[in-house]
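Posting for a labmate who doesn't have an account.
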Amino acid sequence: MDKLLFASFNPHKIEEVAAILSPIAEIVSPKDIGYQFEPEENALTLEGNALIKARSLFTFAQGLPVIADDTGLEVELLNGAPGVLSARFAGEVHNDVANRRKLLHELHALPTPWKAQFRTVIAYIAPTGEEHLFEGVVKGVIATNERGKNGFGYDSLFVPDGYNVTFAEMSETEKNKISHRKRALNCFATFLTTQ
């Protein structure tokens, strides 16, 4: 596969996915083909939102292969919240600072450790229109305060199992080796290379 459209306008995500999939395909952003529409992510699941984004771009791109992802931070003591609402947990879409602040506020009176997992679902639509889903999960805990300057979203609060640093304290290369997105993309890459 030469080119693969990635249905995201998030430059951090595009960079991350391009780095992970570079041996398999060149990642093309929606802006590169003149697509500027961001469909409403109103599904009740990560799978549903990933498919909404993938289907919208696939229709516009007239049969080019497309992937889209949706990621949620699922906190055990909050019954899986923020989950599918992770990007808009505090109300405003993609206000990372407000989302992290609200998460710490919700957890502050609850006993630690605050077990959580990051879960990514990748939706892939082949040129034939056939749809496939791939999942990646990384388990860990929520730190009691923000740590680190790298990454985005909840990275400065998430400490993966087996580590004593947050995703935001890791380099991009270190994070990409173990991240939920990497695990989902590995499943996707395995699927592609065995077709």
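Reply:
Got it, the structure tokens are right above this. Strands lie at 3-6, 26-28, 66-75, 114-125, 131-142, 158-160.
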